[in-house]
Design brief:
The structure holds two protein chains of two kinds. Chain A is of the alpha/beta class. Chain A is about 40% helix and about 25% strand. Chain A folds into two domains: about 160 residues, Rossmann fold (3-Layer(aba) Sandwich); about 70 residues, no CATH class. Chain B is an all-alpha fold. In chain B, about 65% of the residues lie in helices and about 0% in strands. In chain B, the strands form two sheets. Chain B has a two-stranded antiparallel ribbon. Chain B has a two-stranded antiparallel ribbon with strand order 2-3. In chain B, a hairpin with a 2-residue loop joins strand 2 and strand 3. Chain B is globular and about 60 Å long. The chains are: A alpha/beta, B mainly alpha.
């Protein structure tokens, strides 16, 4: 069953066709990878899905709803979470505070009740804290809980960003290059997390990734892009054999 | 030391450690005891410290936490001051006129917040600077209400048994208001709203993807900051007794910036340290004036240049201000003798390229 579908999506910056008429759908519970050379339009697709960019044409359908015109801050409350290629954590806040921000789309208290800090706000805060602690336990981040993000090594920050996205309780998780800047062991760890996120939490994952070992290890289907168009779509092995894909990467 | 945690609720208490409770109790006790032996002049000056601390808390929420620069805080102070004074002169009781000033300043905050939503840094500084200058011009030209350059005398009101004619009354009123504002600010900071302010400071793009409505939250930050500053303005009117349009100019706005930077960006106690600094430095200069050699003490512009010099020195040597320095000293002694020099050093991060704007 299709959880999320992209229909004929396009984004043009003047004459540049960053995304040029792309359609695909993502099934409930699968790991869907997007690969392609630099500038192929992978991150642009993520920014279109998170509604940071307005598409020139095309539609985005999430769980049967057209989300093409929804403002970006609403996307999280629909159940779509994301991470960023260059880690966009709140560096001067603690790990715990970062995770609690992930709970923001579940906050319902009015501003006045927050200023007065009513018992209802306090109860809700304790519940959010409980959820954040579950994510901390899931990702094994207990010993870093109260440390500032600025003090944490890069590899841990990558995991924290995934944790913050999980605090949204998403149905769909967008991972933008989860392995970039990580060594081999850390990349294997990320692969294990992705498996668990899909298997244990039942979250559907779309990821942009360059590391083919990670892509082959975790993804059900792979979509290869170049110049904003789809080159191939299929299993990792199929896509890697595709002559168009080989040409895009190796030239010739 | 932080006590061992046994419940999530523990992290939500405002004063989690015995040390912090004792400190707050001591400071409150001293503040309540001072009027018993201090003279009227000193009480008035201390009231001014409290008033500036209130304005500092307002600016801290906006600049220290949300990361939005403002060079127009003096305008909010002025709006609060004039509204309070004008309403009092027309017979409105203080209990209504003071909140009205805060509210009108808050609305002015919305008025500057909405058009500047997409601005940050230098551009926002220029926009708020322009806003301050427009409001200043209104104070000058709207003679029917503000009295223009002729100034506006502030009526001394009564609040129950307190007569605000005396510095003593103003001292207690300002102290109570400072306590209230600190409580409000602390509540905001421990609630989801406070987290979203800090998130906007950290990264607007990811705050948005976490579900933070940027437009609403930034405007709200301006409104709350302006309202708190407007409240300080209402009290300030009773401190100066006579409102002149040029007392709410750029120099005052820059003093506010100096106040929160010297006090320590991103901490509420920093607003108080900054207020003490900014109010006591001129007094210190006045005391030393005649003893300084070669007429330095009587040079024009001595005070602003000293403010500027100290601001620059803080930015270079202690960007986290007095509050940051104090927390480092506290850490030094709590870790003694195992303190490491690099404890507070941060690794430089070069990964933030290709950011979505």
């Amino acid at each position: 069953m299709s959880l999320f579908a992209v229909e004929d999506l396009a984004l043009h910056f003047g004459g540049i066709r960053a995304v040029d008429g792309i359609s695909f759908d993502v099934r409930d519970g699968e790991v869907f990878a997007i690969i392609g050379p630099n500038g192929a339009g992978k991150t642009t697709i993520f920014n279109l899905i998170s509604r940071l960019y307005q598409p020139t044409s095309g539609r985005l359908i999430f769980r049967g709803q057209d989300i093409t015109r929804r403002p970006p801050h609403v996307v999280a409350s629909l159940g779509i979470a994301r991470t960023f290629q260059n880690i966009e954590l709140f560096a001067n806040a603690t790990l715990l505070q970062n995770l609690l921000i992930g709970r923001h789309s579940h906050v319902s208290a009015s501003i006045l009740s927050q200023i007065l800090y009513t018992p209802a706000v306090r109860r809700a805060e304790i519940a959010h804290r409980g959820r954040a602690e579950e994510v901390i336990a899931f990702l094994g981040l207990e010993r870093h809980r109260d440390r500032l993000i600025a003090d944490l090594p890069y590899g841990i920050r990558k995991v924290v960003e995934i944790g913050r996205a999980l605090c949204i309780d998403p149905r769909l998780l967008l991972l933008d290059e989860p392995s970039s800047g990580l060594n081999v062991e850390e990349t294997q760890e990320i692969a294990a997390w992705i498996d668990e996120i899909r298997g244990t939490l039942g979250v559907t994952v779309i990821m942009v990734e360059h590391d083919m070992s990670l892509v082959s290890a975790v993804s059900d289907r792979v979509m290869a892009l170049n110049y904003g168009r789809i080159l191939a779509l299929g299993t990792a092995a199929e896509v890697q054999r595709d002559p168009e894909v080989v040409r895009a990467y190796l030239g010739g | 030391m932080r006590p061992i945690r046994t419940s999530y609720a523990q992290d939500l208490t405002l004063l989690p450690t015995t040390g912090s409770r004792v400190r707050v109790a001591l400071v409150t006790g001293v503040a309540l005891a001072i009027p018993a032996f201090a003279g009227e002049f000193y009480l008035g000056e201390l009231a001014a410290v409290f008033i500036f601390a209130i304005a500092g808390v307002g600016m801290m929420l906006l600049s220290g936490y949300t990361g939005l620069v403002s060079l127009g805080q003096a305008a909010f102070l002025g709006i609060g001051a004039y509204t309070n004074a004008v309403l009092l002169a027309r017979g409105v009781p203080l209990i209504l006129s003071l909140p009205s000033g805060a509210m009108l300043a808050g609305l002015a905050g919305v008025a500057i917040g909405i058009p500047t939503l997409r601005m940050s840094g230098l551009y926002l500084a220029i926009a708020t600077l322009a806003f301050g200058s427009i409001v200043g011009t209104i104070f000058q030209k709207w003679e029917g209400v503000t009295g223009g350059f002729g100034g506006f005398p502030v009526v001394s009101p009564t609040l129950g048994p307190l007569i605000l004619d005396s510095p003593r009354g103003l001292y207690f009123l300002s102290l109570a208001m400072l306590g209230l504002v600190l409580l409000v600010a602390a509540n905001i900071l421990r609630s989801p709203l406070g987290r979203s302010l800090v998130a906007i400071h950290g990264s607007e793009i990811s705050a948005q993807s976490m579900g933070v409505n940027l437009a609403v939250t930034k405007t709200l930050s301006f409104a709350i900051s302006a309202a708190i500053t407007g409240l300080a303005g209402g009290l300030f009117a009773h401190y100066v007794h006579f409102l002149a349009p040029d007392s709410f100019d750029l120099v005052l706005s820059i003093q506010f910036v100096t106040m929160i930077v010297v006090g320590g960006l991103g901490s509420l106690s920093g607003a108080i340290y900054g207020a003490i600094f900014i109010r006591l430095l001129p007094q210190g200069i006045a005391l030393l004036r005649d003893d300084l050699p070669l007429g330095i003490g009587h040079m024009p512009g001595l005070e602003p240049s000293l403010f500027g010099l100290i601001l620059v020195l803080f930015i270079i040597f202690e960007p986290q201000g007095v509050a940051g320095r104090l927390s480092k000293i506290a850490h030094y002694w709590s870790a003694f003798p195992l303190h490491r020099r690099a404890t507070f050093q941060r690794q430089k991060s070069y990964t933030r390229s290709e950011r979505v704007r």
